[in-house]
Design a protein that fits this description.
heterodimer, A: about 160 residues, globular, B: about 270 residues, 2 domains, 6-stranded antiparallel β-barrel, 2 helices
C-alpha cells in the first residue's frame, strides 16, 4: 500500500507541477523539488534519493532538458537534503527555507551545466527568480506535505 | 555495510545510472513513452489553460459588465428625461390649445374678462369650490361670474365668493349653496338651477305647463344681474313632475367637467 501511496503522490505531484507551470508560467515554484526536499528531510537519504531518482526520471520524460538530467539532479537533491535528516528541525520554517535555497541553487546550477554540455545552452539563465519562487512557497507547501503524509499514516 | 556507506552506495549508483542515461541521448528513443505520459497528464494542462482563460475572460467580462451598467444607468436617466419632456410637452400642447380657445373666445364676446389659473380645490369635495391665482390686485371683484371654455364653447363655472389681493375663491355651480336663474331657450321655461354637491344640477320651480324636455339646453337667463344672459349651464337629462307640487323639476348635467378645469375666465361687470 505504501508503494501505491508513493506512486499516487508521485503522479499527483507531476500533475500539479504541470498544472502550476501552465498556470503561472515562469513564476511557478518547482513543486517536485520541494517534495523531494521534504521527503528526504523527513525520511532520510535512502527515501530521498529513490524518490528523487524516480520523480526525476518521470520528469525527464516531460522535460525538454537532456534525458537523465532531472533524475541526476533530483537524486543529488534527495541526498543533500536527506543528509540533514535528524540534524536540523524539519518543522522550523527558517531551516526549510535555507535548505530549499541551497538545493534550488544546486539543482538550477546543475541544470544549467547539463544543458550547456548535453544540449543547446540557454542564452539567458534566470537562476534567482526560480529560487525566490521556491523559497516563497516553501512554508505553505511543507505544511501541505506534512498533512498529506500524516493523512496517509493515519490510515 | 554501514548506513552511511549504504546511502553513499545507492546515491552513487543512481547518480551513475542518471549520468549514463544522459550520455546515451535517449531523448528521441523515449518519444513513445513521453506521448503516453503526456496523454495521461494532459487534463492538468487543459485544466490550467481553462482556468487561465477563464480568469482572463473574467477581467474582460467584469469590465464589460461595469461599462454596461454605467451605460444602462445613463440610458435610464435619458429615458426619464425624455418621459419628463414628453409629459411637459403634452401639458404645454394642452395649455396652448386652451389658451387658443380663450383667445378665439375674446373675439366673439362683448365682455371684458380676466384669465386665471386654478391653483387649488376644496379638499372635502371637488364640487364645492376652487381657488384661482388672481385676486383684487388682478381686478377680481366679489360676485363676479366665472366661466370656462370647453371645446371652444363657454360654460358657467360659478361665482367669486371671496377675494384676497392675489387669490380668489370660486363657488361652483354644483355646490348646494349655489343658485342661478336658468332658462331653456327652446321651451322658454325659466327656473332656478341649484347645486347638489355632485356632478349634476337641479332645475327647480319650472311651471307645470312648461314644455321642458330631456336634451334641452339650459343657459343663464340674465335675471339677478350676476351672470350675463345666454351662458350655457348644461343639458336637461331628466324631467320629474311632482304630485301635489305646483311645479316641475329637471336634472341637469353640467356643460363643463368641473374636475378638469385648468383655466377659468372671470367676467368683469363692464362691457368692452
Amino acid at each position: 500500500m505504501t508503494v501505491f501511496f508513493y506512486l499516487f503522490t508521485l503522479f499527483l505531484s507531476l500533475f500539479l507541477q504541470i498544472f502550476l507551470r501552465n498556470l503561472l508560467s515562469n513564476f511557478a515554484p518547482n513543486f517536485l523539488l520541494l517534495l523531494v526536499v521534504y521527503i528526504a528531510l523527513a525520511q532520510g537519504v535512502i527515501a530521498g534519493i529513490f524518490f528523487g531518482f524516480t520523480l526525476g526520471l518521470l520528469s525527464d520524460i516531460f522535460s525538454l532538458n537532456p534525458f537523465g538530467s532531472q533524475a541526476f539532479l533530483f537524486t543529488l537533491v534527495g541526498y543533500l537534503a536527506g543528509r540533514q535528516n535528524g540534524k536540523i528541525d524539519a518543522d522550523q520554517p527558517l531551516a526549510q527555507v535555507i535548505l530549499v535555497f541551497l538545493t534550488s541553487f544546486v539543482y538550477l546550477f546543475g541544470l544549467y551545466l547539463f544543458t550547456s554540455f548535453f544540449s543547446v545552452p540557454e542564452k539567458k539563465f534566470n537562476l534567482f527568480p526560480q529560487i525566490l519562487m521556491n523559497i516563497f512557497f516553501t512554508v505553505p507547501f511543507f505544511w501541505f506535505f506534512r498533512y498529506w503524509f500524516k493523512l496517509w499514516r493515519q490510515k | 555495510m554501514s548506513r552511511l556507506a549504504r546511502e553513499r552506495f545507492f546515491c552513487i549508483l543512481l547518480l551513475g545510472i542518471s549520468f549514463l542515461l544522459l550520455n546515451l541521448s535517449l531523448q528521441n528513443k523515449i518519444q513513445g513513452l513521453k506521448n503516453f505520459f503526456l496523454y495521461l497528464l494532459s487534463p492538468s494542462s487543459s485544466l490550467a489553460t481553462k482556468i487561465l482563460t477563464h480568469s482572463q475572460d473574467l477581467g474582460k467580462n467584469l469590465l464589460t459588465q461595469l461599462r454596461l451598467n454605467e451605460e444602462n444607468r445613463q440610458l435610464k436617466q435619458k429615458i426619464q428625461e425624455y418621459i419628463h419632456w414628453e409629459t411637459s410637452g403634452k401639458e404645454i400642447l394642452e395649455e396652448n390649445k386652451r389658451l387658443r380657445q380663450i383667445f378665439n373666445f375674446q373675439e366673439r364676446i362683448n365682455h371684458r374678462f380676466i384669465v386665471a389659473r386654478v391653483i387649488g380645490r376644496d379638499t372635502q369635495s371637488w364640487y364645492h369650490s376652487l381657488v384661482i391665482d388672481k385676486g383684487s390686485a388682478g381686478g377680481i371683484k366679489k360676485d363676479s361670474p366665472v366661466i370656462a371654455l370647453e371645446e371652444e364653447k363657454e360654460g358657467v363655472v360659478g361665482r367669486i365668493i371671496e377675494v384676497s389681493p392675489n387669490l380668489s375663491k370660486v363657488l361652483l355651480l354644483t355646490d348646494s349653496l349655489s343658485a342661478v336663474v336658468g332658462s331653456s331657450p327652446r321651451s322658454k321655461a325659466d327656473g332656478i338651477v341649484e347645486g347638489r354637491d355632485k356632478n349634476e344640477l337641479l332645475f327647480k320651480y319650472l311651471l307645470p305647463e312648461s314644455d321642458i324636455q330631456a336634451g334641452d339646453l339650459v343657459v343663464t337667463s340674465g335675471i339677478g344681474g350676476i351672470f350675463p344672459p345666454g351662458m350655457p349651464i348644461g343639458k336637461v337629462i331628466k324631467v320629474e313632475e311632482k304630485k301635489h307640487m305646483p311645479y316641475k323639476e329637471g336634472i341637469i348635467s353640467p356643460y363643463l367637467n368641473f374636475s378638469h378645469l385648468r383655466e377659468v375666465l372671470v367676467l368683469a361687470n363692464q362691457e368692452k
